[in-house]
Design brief:
By secondary structure, the chain is mainly α. It is built from six helices and two strands. InterPro entries: Diverse_substr_monoxygenases (IPR051260), Luciferase-like_sf (IPR036661).
Length: about 140
């Protein structure tokens, strides 16, 4: 294939046969290539930086705006941040974007407790007591 040629169906079949673990990602990429009638070169350019995920370029404030919009308008309840350069870009996100989100009340400033259950506001389940025979001292213990 030449760089300007469109992605043919046999590429879809070959990609689909390679692995079971990434079938949905391959399907999304191939659907995008077909819908937008991308050439191999165009597809590569679109995928190279963000690996098929959304890629954002802008200010810290603009990124916070986008995240807020997704949360408020589309019900997004979490984000997977995949910075291209680690640890630098992740530190930059934590140092500059998180404080903006915190100031808007969109990101916690402290944890409510010390366990995941506490953070999620879940009640502690009742304890199921049962008797177990201690074979060493022949006494009964409650677990």
């Amino acid at each position: 294939m030449k760089p300007g040629e469109r992605v043919p169906d046999y590429v879809v079949a070959l990609l689909g046969l390679r692995t079971e673990t990434s079938k949905s990602r391959v399907q999304l990429i191939m659907d995008m290539a077909r819908k937008d009638k991308l050439s191999i070169l165009e597809l590569g350019r679109r995928l190279i930086g963000a690996r098929g995920h959304m890629q954002f370029v802008g200010t810290y404030e603009q990124l916070a705006d986008l995240m807020q919009q997704w949360f408020e308008e589309y019900g997004c309840d979490g984000f997977n941040i995949m910075p291209p350069v680690l640890p630098g870009d992740l530190n930059e996100f934590v140092d500059y974007v998180v404080p903006i989100l915190q100031a808007r009340g969109l990101f916690r400033t402290e944890y409510t407790g010390s366990t995941l259950r506490d953070h999620l506001g879940l009640d502690r389940p009742g304890i199921n007591h049962f008797q177990k025979e201690n074979t060493i001292g022949k006494t009964s213990i409650t677990i």
